Automatic annotation (TrEMBL):
Residues 426-495 form a coiled coil. Transmembrane segments: none annotated. This is DNA invertase Pin-like site-specific DNA recombinase. It comes from Thermodesulfitimonas autotrophica. Signal peptide: none annotated. Residues 3-163 form the Resolvase/invertase-type recombinase catalytic domain. It comes from the Bacteria.
Length: 567
């Protein structure tokens, strides 16, 4: 009796959530299920053992980024099913080269793939003509997706020109409308009141975005996600033209991952000519009354003031000295646990009243969160060269206690021990996985025998299904542990390699370090430094665990795991 699995795919989660409203769509999930159910009914000897529902694009996402298709492939390789039914062939992939590769992998696992909507066509890859046909099908699906993407973009631009919101997560100040007619969004009054207060503070009180964030935080107002306000979040909300009744299309571009979107260059954020908005017959902005939280004239004054303030900051940054920050990426605030950024600040006036600029390390809590000084009890900034000097002095003292030959020998011993331990653990896990795989196969066979002749089985269907699930879950857990172990071994090996490289060059390491440019110094420090914690009165240098342990074992009096130095 062939075991059958079914793969459904809908384009978006929104489509899956609104199945009942999409029954007229011949590719909605309920319609797919009905067609496939009817197809299965024509084969009484088939048994559906598993169903998969995928809710992401098979064009934007590769198979490696699609958890469901990866689960389908794993189950096929484990013999969970013999036949895979798909509504259409493009449910597997909409990429020309990827589609035949998925089919080939399933076929190598002994699985037959059938496209139900194509008249029950078997998607074989047994000979060259069939392989060519599968590639052509993948190419056609990819081309169709590209053309669809172009049509969607054009349609979205036309809708934006009419003042229709282009979709996505509702911006701050709005929520999805429950009305079946009219605009898709409606103003959310509590959030709109916060926006109006932001605008008032900016234009009437002369507050900057960070000070506005501090005011909101002190009042107990939080973002939609329940977080503290930052100056960046305030600016993002105020720069969105939708608060002036202008839903915009084209303010973002694709990011580095299929799901991500990033904002375009800063100059485009408030430039109405750089994206699509509703306009009148003369080309002037035409606000949508239902979306207007503040008047357009007020918003234009707001962004103009933002531009002026930003240009002043840009001029200051342009005249500042290049960053020489050595410890960014290592430096952590001992009071709030957040990192430091490099910046420039003005010194106190000298005898002649002149204030010079200097480089500083700024705690990001103080720098980015409104009212951050009330959240973090540490200093907001530290003079960069003072921190660097204390760190370098302590680092030099520490390195003088390291014997290069002893360290290299120690690293090699530790590496060999770790490799042996990892190998033993890997063998144990692999043996347990093989044993569990046999148990899974045995229970799966009993379940198949039950479906063939229930009256001859010693176990009930529920009991057999529970044993199969228990064995499969254990096997998945063991495979995950093996994967995690391999990743840990790889990370461990990289760390050992770094320490070995340091040990081989320890005699000259300090001299090379002093002469190297800042970026090279940072890479060298990453070999031996874990982090540097800064308090008001001291810093703590946390060395890599192996180096700390080495020093502790080779000295009569073990040192602490962290080295403190007074500021």
């Amino acid at each position: 009796m062939p075991s059958v699995a079914v793969l459904y795919r809908v384009s978006t989660k929104k489509q899956a959530r609104k199945q009942r409203r999409l029954l007229e769509n011949d590719e909605s999930l309920p319609v797919q299920a009905a067609v496939i159910k009817e197809f299965v009914a024509r084969h009484p000897d088939w048994t559906v053992v598993k169903e998969y529902v995928e809710e992401i694009s098979a064009f934007k996402f590769s198979k490696d980024d699609r958890d469901i298709i990866q689960q389908v492939i794993r189950d096929a390789m484990n013999g969970v099913f013999d036949i895979l039914l798909v509504f259409k062939s493009d449910r597997l992939s909409r990429r020309a080269f990827e589609y035949p590769m998925i089919l080939w992998t399933l076929q190598q696992s002994g699985v037959t793939v059938i496209s139900v909507a194509d008249g029950g066509k078997v998607l074989n890859m047994k000979d060259q003509p069939e392989k060519l046909m599968r590639f052509v099908e993948g190419w056609q699906s990819e081309t169709e997706s590209i053309n669809t993407s172009i049509r969607v973009k054009e349609a979205m631009q036309k809708l934006a020109e009419k003042g229709v919101w282009s979709g996505g997560r509702p911006p701050y100040g709005f929520r999805l409308s429950e009305r079946r007619t009219g605009p898709a969004l409606e103003i959310h009054e509590p959030e709109a009141a916060v926006i109006k207060e932001m605008v008032r503070l900016y234009l009437e009180e002369g507050f900057g975005s960070k000070r506005i964030a501090a005011v909101l935080n002190e009042k107990g107002v939080r973002t939609r996600e329940g977080r503290l306000w930052t100056d960046t979040r305030v600016r993002q909300i105020l720069q969105n033209p939708i608060i002036a009744g202008l839903p915009a299309y084209g303010r973002t571009r694709p990011g580095n991952t299929p799901k991500s979107r990033v904002r375009k260059a800063k100059g485009c954020w408030t430039d109405l000519s750089s994206y699509t908005i509703p306009r009148d017959e003369n080309g002037n902005p035409r606000p949508v009354p239902e979306y207007q939280i503040i008047p357009l004239e007020t918003w234009l004054r707001l962004v103009e003031k933002m531009k002026q303030m930003n240009s002043g900051g840009a001029a200051v940054r342009a005249g500042a000295a290049p960053s020489t920050a050595l410890l960014t990426g290592f430096l952590v605030c001992g009071h709030c646990g957040r990192t430091f950024k490099s910046s420039s600040g003005l010194c106190r006036p000298d005898r002649n009243g002149v204030r010079k600029r200097r480089r500083v390390y700024k705690c990001v809590t103080h720098d980015q969160i409104g009212g951050g000084n009330k959240i973090c009890s540490g200093q907001g900034s530290y003079v960069q060269h003072k921190i660097d000097n204390v760190f370098l002095k302590e680092l030099e003292t520490f390195l003088k206690r390291v014997d290069p030959e002893d360290l290299l020998r120690y690293v090699e011993i530790k590496e060999s021990r770790a490799a042996v331990e990892a190998s033993m653990l890997r063998k144990t896990l692999e043996a347990e996985a093989r044993k569990t795989r046999k148990v899974l196969d045995a229970w799966t066979k009993r379940l198949e025998d039950y479906f063939a002749a229930p009256e001859n089985s010693l176990y009930s269907e529920d009991y057999l299904a529970a044993r199969v699930k228990e064995a499969r879950d254990k096997l998945n857990r063991l495979e995950a542990e093996l994967l995690s172990l391999n990743q840990q071994v790889a990370a461990h090996a990289r760390r050992r390699t770094d320490l070995a490289a340091f040990a081989r060059r320890a005699a000259e390491w300090w001299d090379v370090f002093l002469e190297a440019p800042v970026e090279v110094k940072k890479r060298m420090l990453s070999q031996i430094i874990e982090k540097v914690v800064v308090y008001r009165d001291r810093i703590e240098i946390h060395y890599c665990i192996d180096l700390r342990e080495f020093i502790a074992r080779t000295e009569e009096k073990p040192i602490r795991f962290k080295v403190q130095a007074a500021l």
